[in-house]
Amino acid sequence: MAYISLFTDKGVDLDKLKPEEQKEVAVSICKDWFEKDRNAKKFYTDEMTEIYKLYKGDHWDLNNSNGMPLRTEEQKYARPNSVENYTFAFIEGLISEFSQEYELIDYPVEKDDEQAASIMTNLKKFLSYKNRNTTELVKFLRNLFWYGTGIWHIYWDPTWIGGKGPNRWVGDIRWQSLHPGALFPDARCKEDINDGRRVHKALYKTIEDIKENYPDIADKIMPDMLRDDMLIGYDLDDESYESSEDQILVIETWYKGEPLVLDEGEENLGPGMHVIWWAGENNPIYLKHANYIYFNHDETPLYPFIVKQCYPRENSIWGYGEAYFIKNPQIILNKTAEIILEGHMHQAIGQTIYNESALT
């Protein structure tokens, strides 16, 4: 790119760029970061794809220790392909147990804090209700127990409008569960996403939605080809054209350091936390930005993502889920069930006996 000579290890010399050039360069930098961080996450994306096969019962499509499917399509035609989906029953039972309603109580710290604590408790309950937190909690737990990583995204949404009459409100706190497939932290993170200098949230949205929200650039927005590795469980070969047309990948890149874009009236106050919204892999385009968001420049910023591991993984923010450890026992269970079934089919004998607690 023509502006590459303006890049330095310390960032971009914004004074030498026009506003539109700043945005162009900023999107180019964000895209480069995103590609690096997505490639670094590939091992976990592949792992989630395997786990999803366990979830939906495609157990004979699971990969063996050599990375090959347990059975080819031809081999499956000749066998019963028995599936005793113990993994699903066990993990969904855990989700049901942990998704019980819980109290949101803010306790007073000082002697005269009772009123403030009561107000905060009511506020938390109201925000929980508005965000349908009961449903979001089930999503969080499902991601945690199946894929090993549960993520909360908590942020201020100025476009969220609701209520009627005197109760009308514009903008409020969003409290949502985010699928681990949609988060791409700095590839250099080891234990905490806040160790990294950037993190990306990437979701496919309809072209119509983006054009409606950004009418000034509607003529520049082009649809993307959907990628299998961006949508867990989505097989492009099996999906209809209609389900994948007219969509574009929208990425919000949160980063620490000096701002990459300065609009009129904005100043470079030094390092802080910023975010750039951009869209499109084939034709990346700037949408909007916010500098020094949620924190002042002299504060230590934290990304608005809370990442929790079911079981920790060394030198990674991604956790291990229950399904990861049950995969091999599940394969053995299926093979054992198939042996019994084939014994009935071919020899009309079924002499295999389990103790009452043998599979628990």
Question: In words, what does this structure look like?
Answer:
- This protein is an alpha+beta fold.
- The protein contains eight helices and ten strands.
- The strands form three sheets. It has a five-stranded antiparallel sheet.
- Helix 4 (86-98) packs across helix 6.
- The radius of gyration is 25 Å and the shape is globular.
Sequence-ordered SSE layout with sheet pairings:
Blueprint: E1 7-8, E2 11-12, H1 19-40, H2 42-56, H3 73-77, H4 86-98, H5 114-130, H6 133-147, E3 149-162, E4 169-178, E5 183-185, E6 198-206, H7 207-213, E7 247-257, E8 272-279, E9 285-290, E10 305-309, H8 322-347
Helix pairs in contact: 4-6
| Radius of gyration, taken over Cα atoms and rounded to an integer in Å | 25 Å
Major sheet size, sense and barrel closure: 5 strands, antiparallel
Uncertain segments: 1-10
Helical fraction: 25-40%
Strand order of the largest sheet: 5-6-7-8-9
Structural class: alpha+beta
Coarse shape: globular
Tally of helical runs? 8
Percent of residues in beta strands? Answer: 15-25%
| Number of distinct beta strands | 10
* Alpha-carbon distance between the two ends: 60 Å
Summarize model confidence as the mean pLDDT: 87
**Pattern of helices and strands:** EEHHHHHHEEEEHEEEEH
